[in-house]
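Encode chain A's predicted structure.
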Amino acid sequence: MGNLLEKIDAEKENVNIVLENLKQVMKKKKKSVIELSATATFMHNIYNGIENMLKQILKSKNIEIQKSDMWHKKILETSVKHKIISEDLADKLREYLAFRHFFIHGYGFMLEESSLTQLAKSIPKIWNQFILEIKKETP
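Encoded structure for chain A:
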């Protein structure tokens, strides 16, 4: 379990740094394409951190996620099934999973500021909910 806690703590630390960076860029009223791209990168980093923690928790329980086109979605579904996170949280995270897909396959100049801003404003609260829900897995 110690190894799991170390990995989770490292991810938490990284995500908290990214959240601070996100807070700084969100202070600007009107963002350039570069600032929007930075915001998108931060959102992607946060979601990846959450996903990495879920993978580590699942792995510690000997629950394997088969690599496939849908494996990112399966991580959320399996985490709900095994009561690592709630369905409510998984629903919220699915928005970020969809954004992750767009981020990976899209272009920075295609980012829509209003949608990105809404996701960015919501992520600190979702992050806090996530940390509370996984606490039982990582005492």
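The first helix runs from residue 2 to 26.
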